[in-house]
Amino acid sequence: MSTITLLGTGTCQIEANRRASSVLLHLDNTYILFDCGHGVLQRLLEAGVQHHQLQHIVLSHFHADHISDIIPFLQVGAWSRRNPRTTDIHIYGPAGVQKIIDGLLQVFGPGSLQQPSYEIIVHEITQPHFKIGPYSLDFISLPPADNHGLRFTWNGKRYAITGDSYFHDEEIAFLRDVDLAIIDAGHIEDSEIVQLAASSQAKTIVCSHLYREIDAQQLQAQSTSAGYQGTILVGKDLMTFVL
pTM of the predicted model, to two decimals? Predict the structure, then answer.
């Protein structure tokens, strides 16, 4: 069974019920993590996935609430006495991701975050499309903050996930007519979410990366009045969608 699970729907704020940004894709037998903010490793365990089963991490951009659990993730792979890593870990991101990973290895020492039995393989994505094994993914720049969104097609349906983003034409184009969109709703107002829904006509929009409480029913009513024909949901940690 293939799924999308929201591991973290929060931000840099420390909250009891929300961890920072992260979405887990389970495609066939491959796990792909999109962003890796604080507290996400605990959520990964709660979702039933051991750290050593995860071989691919995609970083949308380099804000700490999207990448900070990279450090404990690499450390547990190297030193945990439960399920230590024996397979390579692939880390993908925009230009600069190699410098970040190299910097972490230099600060902590390679032996602290890696063992000789596997490699940390870094992929700098400089084109709007890339592949993970047999899977083709779009990696689209979405202003501001050098943020990127991840988009892919699975069994004839389209899926899109954003990191940090604001309301703009690039965001509308990124989400247009997708079947499931997981969006950063923390940096935009309710009125902009309504415009984004009506303009993109994404069939289901899940509001994530939340700094504030959102009234899904009110947003749904306003969006429907504006011509939106789909469904708006407020994301919660560990919310799962079957693909």
Answer: 0.97
